[in-house]
Design a protein that fits this description.
2 copies of one chain form a homodimer. Chain A is α/β, with parallel strands linked by helices. Chain A has 5 helices and 12 strands. Chain A has an 8-stranded mixed β-sheet with strand order 5-4-1-6-9-10-11-12, sandwiched between helices. In chain A, α1 (45-56) crosses α5. Chain A is globular and about 60 Å long. The A-B interface holds A 29, 32, 34-41, 69, 108, 110-112, 115, 119-124, 128, 130-137, 160-163, 172, 190, 193 and B 29, 32, 34-41, 69, 108, 110-112, 115, 119-124, 128, 130-137, 160-163, 172, 190, 193.
Chain lengths: 230, 230
């Protein structure tokens, strides 16, 4: 699909072509060998809830998703990926489009990958010795999108902290907000993975907690889209 | 559920109580911290195909399954687990039952786990240094069941070798067959994960390749159950 130029943005008939929200969703997988991988239990449910909220508020939605069981709304365009690098590549390709007004980083990309991927299935050591694995960081998807963000675009990030309600958790979240240049950061707890009702803190671009919300992913999703489409 | 004694076996009215085949299926997950885990792409489709074949040949089926998307036959009893240790515990509990005639180890359990699981989400190193992870072996489910196997029970193992058609792949498979005391070993290729048509070698208790089969998982499953119910 040909990319359109920024200038096209102003030529669009917005009645014919709705603005698009880009949503990353689900986990990524980082292979150790042809069989094994690192991943996490992200279900893609928050991504699905955000997509539904965005569509019902009149946006087009593109989802870049890792492997999930969840059903995305049929009206959404879904790009399936496996690794964090693939998710980044796909997200960059979509974020650069003139009709893309913002990105919501609801995915839980693996932030570590094996320093080298074994071409053969890794064998157990014959004498049962431990296996030492060297992990390196994967690219930071939102921080990377932040470097190419246009003035007319916004970024919503998610932070998952083990201890979100302590000073440390909040401080970490603030560091993430700055690095990813988030207009809104959604801070939640590991218990958010795979469940439906959860507690989040919404932090604005100035670092202020503007709302604490204990609710279903659907209600939280609606609130996020509402905040960004004002 | 109360376990029944071996002697009960001979008291059963087999018309009322069919023999049960125990099937392990899907991947397991080994946590690194509250969010991340090691796993593999096993879909559970071979386990589902084996369950269908066993049920259609008149057996009851108990499936011990890791997290999968596949739909198991409604007539099967399904026990859901996450880690390899949980899969082993559940499988032992079922294998000891008097009506259990055999186990088919179609699961792809993680054979490594983190030496220590972090209670907190593991942070990136501030200076981008690699993360060193120490992995240790998980218990071998079939080898463990083999130590408690009754004379009236059989074990079918699966071996996944990167190079199944070379001498090395076959030799590794033979070692697995002996360690797990398999009456039948199904040797297949990493491309078996997540796809439907695959090539397997069937190896009997004496280490002889009795059949090579390129077919759907359904046909392979029917052949395996047929071989074991003769």
């Amino acid at each position: 699909m040909a990319k359109r130029l920024l200038s096209d943005h102003f030529l669009e008939d917005t009645e014919k072509m709705p603005y698009t929200i880009l949503i990353t969703s689900g986990p990524t997988r980082e292979p150790l060998d042809p069989v094994r991988f690192l991943s996490n239990g992200s279900s893609g449910r928050m991504g699905a809830a955000l997509s539904e909220a965005a569509i019902s508020q009149g946006f087009a939605v593109t989802i870049v998703s890792g492997p999930v069981r969840v059903a995305y709304p049929p009206a959404a365009k879904v790009i399936e990926v496996e690794t964090t690098q693939e998710m980044l590549d796909a997200a960059r390709g979509e974020f650069v489009r003139a009709d893309c007004v913002g990105v919501i980083g609801a995915a839980a990309p693996c932030d570590f990958r094996a320093a080298s991927v074994s071409k053969q299935k890794i064998k157990k050591n014959a004498d049962g010795r431990p296996l030492i694995l060297e992990l390196v960081e994967t690219p930071d998807i939102l921080a990377s999108l932040a470097t190419m963000k246009r003035p007319d675009q916004w970024i919503v990030g998610f932070a998952l902290e083990s201890e979100p309600h302590t000073g440390v958790g909040l401080e970490n979240a603030q560091m993430k907000r700055q690095k990813k240049r988030c207009d809104l950061l959604v801070l939640n707890h590991p218990n958010a993975i795979g469940v439906d009702v959860t507690t989040v803190s919404l932090i604005n671009a100035c670092g202020e907690i503007i709302q604490e919300l204990t609710s279903t992913k659907r209600t939280i999703a609606e609130r996020i889209v509402q905040l960004m489409s004002r």
